[in-house]
Amino acid sequence: MKKVLFVDDDQGIINGLKRIMRSLRNEWDMHFVLDGQSALALLEKDRFDVIVSDMRMPGINGAELLSRVREKYPHMVRIILSGYSDQDLLLKAVRPAHQFLSKPCDAETLKKTVLRITEIQNILNSTELKEIVSNIDSLPSLPSLYQEITQALQKEDVAVKEIGEIIQKDIGMSAQILKLVNSSFFGFFKNISNPVQATSLLGIDTVKTLVLSIGIFSSLKYDQELLLSYDTLWNHSTLTATFAKHIAGLISKDQLFIEDAFIAGFLHDIGILILASKLPDRYEKILNKVSEDKRNIWEVEKELLGTNHAEIGAYLLGLWRFSNQVVEAVIRHHNPEIFGDEPNSLVTVLHLADSFAHHLDPAVQNLSISKLDAQYLKNINIYEEAQGWFSECKRLIEKAPPGNM
Ligand SMILES: [Fe+2]
Ligand SMILES: [Fe+2]
What we know:
Helices cover about 55% and strands about 5% of the residues. The chain has 3 domains: about 1-120, 3-Layer(aba) Sandwich (Rossmann fold), CATH 3.40.50; about 145-220, no CATH class; about 230-400, Hypothetical protein af1432. The termini are far apart. It contains 21 helices and 7 strands.
């Protein structure tokens, strides 16, 4: 049974939460406390899975509480439940919190959020990797892009579009900006997959505070040169995003689907970024084994880590409230057949785009030996069509090779 801890200094709100969550009392073990100190005391006694905390509380506030929880209990999922009037204070919780819920929060949203979190936790069964991923409060960016954005933000009259376009070129920055926009924290309730649009919704002042004072972005440290360079990973992500957007545009006119395809393509290997930056020594061994044994990277990861980069990436995107479609496409990008699928779905588009990108870019060919799942494509009747899409993607790459896209 999952254990969930609710913290709020207002007894009326605690009573409301107890009422709302009553119907789930047989599924979750829920505890309610009135301040941060009591929350920490309880956490010392027992292992909890999720914490939902108010922001403004006497003594330890929500941001501080979640920071301490992150440090001491990194496996836990951390949610802030707060009013919009607390915006200035709330910016401090942007790093330690995985998600935000706004007060007053209706019963359905609260239940759905905690329920989805507990489902997402089942993606990873390795406690060690759960801790590593839940502990992430900032994903590293390419140093050149990190420098570009901090310099641009220091200019007096920088346009928000210019900032959005830099963010869109970086895997870590894009994921973080979308995490913020898609939480209900800033009051946008629709699903947004476009980093440029997300940046303009947040506005230049908020982005400046988040980047320059709160430090939501950080630069990659090249302590160790891995067999797979970060530039190669960025090029592969950009290429996959370009292909995914192109294929999605051929099969659908739905703008949201096309934008989801782009972002799923851009972030599909975010698990590699996490592993390479958090466990460089172990990842180096994995990369060596992949090249010596000529095997698929995700199979060697599974053998040596008990999980693979697709599951790790999907877990982080799930914690950060990316849509179910994007999370599912990322989990299944190497093995789309597992659950069977509709031909037009994001899973198929991402599998095709990633396979084409591995096939057409010599820099990443050795990571993926098995490439396209032909049987899956035949089963969903798009095998012939996919050949045509491959030729189109090949033409795209001839026009602009990776690194120049
Ligand atoms: Fe992958
Ligand atoms: Fe890939």
